Every structure is written in structure tokens, then in C-alpha cells.
Amino acid sequence: MFIIADYSGNETDNNVKVIFRVSPTYTSGKFYSSLDFSYMGKRAANVPNAFELPAYKQTNLNLGYNLTSKLQLQANINNLFNQLGVMGWSAPEGFPAALDRQGFTKEQLNANPNVVYSTLSLPARAYFITATYKF
Questions:
Q1: Is the model's pLDDT at 128 over the cut of 90?
Q2: H or E element, residue 81
Q3: What are the residues whose beta carbons fall under 8 Å from the beta carbon of 115, sequence distance 6 or more?
Q4: What pTM does this model have?
Q5: Which among 30, 79, 82, 116 is least buried, having the fewest CB atoms inside 10 angstroms?
């Protein structure tokens, strides 16, 4: 059986209306720093607009020092405030159904409102140090 679905007027999936990013930086002599703030607004989860993925924000901190003209050390904290966010998702019912996000409809969601999804979340706070050497 072949079914044609009309999604005219629906939002495009994963197409956010508001994306915002600001990255102020500071430099003093050999020291430099930046604070990166990103915001991703809510967006339709798929073409049938079964539900919306929520908005999220993330803040990263970077502090560095130029030891020489060729060697830099930098300390970084990604997701400084350990904020939560859903970056993506998979349809319920396991493999291979999980691959068909576009086939999941509002009707299926309403029929089983407690259905479990797999999600790709914003990574938790992470600390790391980088060393850069310019040849």
C-alpha cells in the first residue's frame, strides 16, 4: 500500500528559527581568554511535526597563555554550567524503526504518550588542556 502524506504548512524538521552565538575575547600580553555562549531555539523534531525538540544553551570557557612565539597552552571547559539539551533523537521501537524519524506521527505519539525515545544529548561538562606548537 502506498500512502501520500501532505505536510504543507508544517515546519521543516530540525530547522530552528533562532540560533545565537557570542564569543567575547580578552587578551593581555601573553594571556588570552574567551567565553563562548550558544543558544539553539526550539524546533520541529520531524517533517510530520510530531513534537518539538526543546531549546538549549551552552557556555564554554577558554583560558590560554603564549609561553613562546611558537608554544601555547590552553585550558578549556566545555558546557561550563553543565546545561542540558537535546541535539537529536531516534524514533521509538528500536532498530530498524529508529531510523525512520520522518515516519513517526502525532497520531502515534498520542496513541502511546509514554513511548521511549533515544536522544543525542548535549555533552556534559568537560575539562581539557591543549598544547599548540607552531613549526
A1: yes
A2: none
A3: 92, 108, 109
A4: 0.83
A5: 116
